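#struct-help
A.M.: can someone run this one for me? Single chain, 126 residues.
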Amino acid sequence: MASEIFTEAAILIVDDEPIIRFDLVDFFEDAGFRVLDAESADAAIVVMNANPTIRIVLTDIQMPGSMDGLKLAHYIGDRYPPTLLIVASGIVKPTAQELPINTMFVSKPYNPRQVLAAIQRAAPAA
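D.P.: on it. Structure tokens below:
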């Protein structure tokens, strides 16, 4: 089970669309994760600072605020290694060079089960 792989770890879901965010929160809670969420990169940074057990961040790219999800991924990658980063978008398709180290990109719409499987495969690195 995922919660056994990431003992004591939490996942942060960052998306400005409430329905998408809440569905992902429910999915990952059902999968055994402790889940936190934020509606913007700015809010995500506050959550990251307050929760040192976050080891996985799933973020959308297009969001309002001072930075988008790609900049958020770089911020987190620089300050909170070895956090596993998953960046998602249905519009923007960043190149491998644009993504921070230890980052996966998924195109929207995506199946959360596929994201969970990718997290489980990456568990030794996270």
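A.M.: thanks! The chain has one domain: 2-125.
D.P.: also worth noting: The radius of gyration is 13 Å.
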